[in-house]
Amino acid sequence: MARILIVDDDQGMRDYLEIMLSREGYDVNTAPGGKDALTLCRKRKFDLVITDLKMSGMDGIDLLKSLKDISPETMTILITGYASGETALAAMKEGAYDYLEKNFEPDDLKNLVKDALRKRGISEEDAQFIKDVEDSVSFGKMTGKSRGMLKVYSLVKKMADTIANVLILGESGTGKELIAMAIHENSSRNDGPFVVINCGGIPENLLESELFGYMKGSFTGAYADKPGLFEMAHKGTIFLDEIGELSPFLQVKLLRVVQEKTFRRVGGSRDISVDVRIISATNQNLEVLVKTGDFREDLFYRLNVIPVRIPPLRERKEDIPLLVNHFIEKYSREYNKETKKMSPYAMALLVEYPFTGNVRELENIIERSIALETTNIILPENLEISVTGDPALSYGGDLEIPEEGVDLNEEVAKFERNLMNKALRKAGGSKTKAAKLLNVSLDSLRYRLDKPEITQKG
């Protein structure tokens, strides 16, 4: 029987929630405020805390912060009558599982409670792990708390200090170099060098000398001996990005380094020994390349001792608001601008966007918006992305205005109508769920739906 704690300074709301959830079979306790809730949490463990946002004394956000120290594995849900995109993001940033407005439908809360408790069942170890690495510089460079990223973090933690070679698999823009850096920083080699090379961005003849170095006079322009990147990475880590682009000739050379930890410089006759951990990465399917004969099978198995798969951004949409806030803060500092806010509509648009370029594409969108935006809020029309999936219908700086002009109000109404209809379809017709998807209040959504020029479809 799951234990649930309800925190609200409204006796009527406490009683209502206690009766509702007790009937669902939960062990329910209540507290009239944040301090009383913390006292109870110190005495016993709760699986879930449902708390009001606005309370006298300690509010819901402060309670979340304190609860993380006392019981990091406890899931939390915020209930508020003051919902906004900013409120929701602040709550999620402090570790809340989700939030509801006070005029919620009972089934919405029941389903949310079930989801939170189901998530808690698989995340206790991950929650403690995140708490352990919260202040880690290397993990601090990766943002995300989705289940897929938690698995990546956990795997990195477990194998970082081994000597095994690692193959990082993921689409372009997912952050493979950040994962490689995290592995290095959390290993016993973190005092040694971390050397990076893109195997797909250098011609074969130059790549060989970059990797292994060369001797004076070995080719035109070789005026002195030069060590290669493997020598420079001695006692550290070398990260070979786009490993699938290596030519058959260099695959043979690399196989020797992997197997024997020795190599020769271009034009050299002496074997050089190195102590290097090799981390490789690719956005290609190496198993397919092995079958077609384009990648050596023996090299593949040598490099693929521990595979790490990074999920694409479209499979971890819950990370998008966190990444957006991270990039807004980053580029506001870099461009010396006041920190901007993302409008709820713009955030909803980003969450639904497929991001074929993954995190790198999202970062570029936010940087461009910060650089060009002159107001303190980023609106949907300031995002240079496709609203419908058709690049020709991109809202942003490339939008063409015909000679006869456009009706701004009509265009904004079309955009609003399209977004609300999508949200309603995704929510199965539930206005409460649609409002949540759009990060607006239920009253706001109802008002927009009731406006004469807006008609609800499908």
Q: How helix-rich are the residues, as a percent range?
A: 40-55%
- The strand count comes to 18
Proportion of beta-strand residues: 5-15%
Q: Point out poorly predicted stretches.
A: 129-138, 387-399, 453-458
Based on the structure given, which CATH architecture of the largest domain is correct? 3-Layer(aba) Sandwich
* Shape designation: globular
Give the helix tally: 19
Characterise this structure.
- The protein is an alpha/beta fold and 458 residues long.
- The protein folds into four domains: 3-131, Response regulator (Rossmann fold, 3-Layer(aba) Sandwich), CATH 3.40.50.2300; 147-311, 3-Layer(aba) Sandwich (Rossmann fold); 315-400, Helicase, Ruva Protein, domain 3 (Orthogonal Bundle); 407-458, Arc Repressor Mutant, subunit A.
- Helices cover 46% and strands 15% of the residues.
- The protein has helices spanning 11-23, 34-43, 60-70, 85-93, 106-133, 137-140, 147-159, 176-185, 204-212, 229-232, 248-260, 286-291, 297-303, 320-334, 344-352, 358-372, 408-426, 431-438, 442-450; strands spanning 3-7, 27-31, 48-52, 75-80, 98-101, 166-169, 194-198, 213-214, 226-227, 236-241, 262-263, 272-273, 276-282, 306-309, 341-342, 377-378, 385-386, 394-395.
- It has a five-stranded parallel beta sheet with strand order 2-1-3-4-5, sandwiched between helices. A five-stranded parallel beta sheet has the order 7-10-13-6-14.
- Strand 1, helix 1 and strand 2 (27-31) form a beta-alpha-beta unit.
- Helix 2 (34-43) runs parallel beside helix 3 and helix 5 runs parallel beside helix 7.
- The radius of gyration is 27 Å and the shape is globular.
- The protein starts with a strand and ends in an 8-residue tail after the last helix.
